[in-house]
Amino acid sequence: MASDTERRNLPPLELHVPEPKFRPGDDADFSDIAIPTVGETRRPDIADDHRDMPDLSYGLVRVLDDDGKAAGPWDPKLDPETLRKMLRAMALTRAYDGRMFRAQRQGKTSFYMKCTGEEAVAVAATFALDRDDMTFPSYRQQGILIARDWSLVDMMNQVYSNKKDRLMGRQLPIMYSTKQGGFFSISGNLATQFPQAVGWAMASAAKGDTRIAATWTGEGSSAEGDFHSACIFASVYRAPVIMNVVNNQWAISSFSGFAGGDETTFAARAVGYGLAGLRVDGNDALAVYAATQWAAERARTNNGPTLIEHFTYRAEGHSTSDDPEQYRSANEAADWPLGDPIARLKKHLISIGEWDEERHAAMDEEVATQVKTAQKQAEKNGILGHGLHQPLETMFEQVFEEMPWHLKEQMQDMLDENDAANGVCKTR
Amino acid sequence: MSKGEENKGATTQRNMIQAINNAMDVCMERDDNVCVFGEDVGYYGGVFRATAGLQEKYGKTRSFDTPINECGIIGVAVGMAAYGMRPVAEIQFADYIYPGLDQLVSEAARLRYRSAGEFTSPLTIRTPFGGGIFGGQTHSQSPESIFTHVCGVKTVIPSTPYDAKGLLIAAIEDPDPVVFFEPKRIYNGPFDGHYDTPVLPWSKHPASEVPDGHYAIPLGKANVLREGSAVTMLCYGTMVHVTAAAVEELGIDAEVIDLRTLLPLDMETIEASVKKTGRCVIVHEATRTSGFGAELSALVQERCFYHLEAPIERVTGYDTPYPHSLEWAYFPGPVRLRLAIERVMEDVSGNV
User: Fold this and answer.
1) Considering chain A, what is the average pLDDT of its residues?
2) Is the pLDDT of residue A257 over 60?
3) Are B56 and B200 spatial neighbours (Cβ–Cβ below 8 Å)?
4) b/e per residue, A85-106, with b = 16+ CB within 10 A?
5) In a shared domain, residues A264 and A307
6) Mean predicted confidence (pLDDT) in A75-87
7) Which structural domain range is residue A408 located in?
8) Which domains are seen in chain B, by residue range?
9) Which residue intervals of A188-284 are DSSP H helices?
10) Closest CB from A170, A175, A178 relative to B113
11) ipTM computed for the complex
């Protein structure tokens, strides 16, 4: 053991606190991000042992090149009709986001979160899953519902917490839930859905079912203990699950370095846990589709779980509650080297002669109208803060299946209070 | 067996562990959605042997070991329950439950509410709790009031083999999440609080005659263990036996109520008793401040104030970590109970 005298000659220790390369006022330059070319990252057979593919956690699955050409072993070779459907679902997601964000700014609801720039991560993945596979999303995968043709009016009713909100106005806007849509109730406590997805997948496997589970979390939330709990359970029981880390570079104002992203890739965590790991160009819808399809096939054939890092960029703020100009460089989104997922798929469709500017403009108009029509319909059911849409009693319902006496008593107190206030609130 | 709960069929003499084991066995036999898991639960059958034989009987996919990861155990249970299974997860010691707390408090307990009934969490968390086994501060805690403070979860604590089986079956079959605390000090015999005398085995206790078949004790129903008119003693778990023994030793005509379920609470039985006796002593091993006794005391005061002849007394553990060597000085034993009963039996003028 070193003595105190010896210690005096040691250099002082230094605490490293990560810092993003660019802050407001800086001209962001992403030229040092290593981007493998299309085809450089190999595609192993779906039955290959995860031990033989650690390189995939450091590569980048890509299909579309800068000119919009699809190439390489990951090309899913989708028919043009499917490509157009995917493009439309992404465009609809973006239009929906734009409209709902404005609705929040107009005071029609309390909160909203866009997924701008990340549409492919949810939409293309959903296209590669089966309709009855179960999804455990985080708060930025509204694209799953849209890709599954879920009703926009139903989603908006939730955002407005209005009288047709199936969740009875109990949840923060965007925390959708639909069993029929195979979309698990979103939690505001981050990454909790990860072990739940693994548990669902374990149950499916234990029951000899054929359905698999897929879950998503941000790179920031992948620092949560729940993420690591999920990884170890998924690995130990070889659960039929796809675990997606959406690395959009920012967790509110904290850059990915605070989740460990400066030291290694997020996909590389798969190596330590003994999972198959893929790092994917998250702005390339075909790459996301191909990676998800590969992982889904692995899971469905008892070849185990896959951790997928989607390398993407959060083009807008975290939510309606923050201002990205306060913490990051203004040109980041525009200069993101992997472009925009909608623009890239559009370019590809045009390059294969299956799309053109006119049709694209027409589609944009069509989705805008669709969203506008849905909004009008949803607003007929009410908007947040303009009258109470749920009868007071619903506050106490479904805490338990059967209401215990203490809740009945508290409900009566509330009704008495309402009477004392001359019945301002709606009751049954 | 308490009044009004009759069972048909053969009985077998069982200690608490065997009764708990039998409850899971009965449920697994009846419903193949029931599965049990936790640290050392599968092949070995649990460090307290509560799941012994279940893997052999039902196979590895229904009774299995898990990583040492309570967040994962409870999180996976939530996912399994959402799938449609009825997971019974063991947290090896209640002291270890904290890493899994978020999954229980924010997820399992809230799922029905936040999804408006589309997704539910009919899971059971079994966990041994309480001290008196020289477990030190990390194997002795009684964290039950943390769970009663959370909306959406039920808290159940048995005190006999008969109750343990009936309550655990009710917990497993309940549509909502239940935390089932097992008082480990009385796994093998009803402890009377006299740590320096030999413990009687369950075989000497009538509640060890446990029916072999299926029966459920409704959650939210207390058991009046002993009827009396002088004072109401509210207790649960190990403290039921310590309290009953103290009452016999003092020769006082106390009404001893074993709460069995803290949430939902059987307030009707409590209220009727305190209105009859006019006095109330609350007994639990957990730390005092914000313990479940505080809630009980408030409820009794709110509902029985004009019937009370003396201030409500709380007999509890101290607000310190559970000490290893000073365990019996910490434990709310016969002397602490006697002093509290003596205080509560003084009338308002100060005369005993």
Assistant:
1) 96
2) yes
3) no
4) bbbbbbbbbbbbbebbbebbee
5) yes
6) 98
7) 392-421
8) 11-211 (3.40.50.970), 223-345 (3.40.50.920)
9) 193-206, 225-237, 269-273
10) A170
11) 0.96
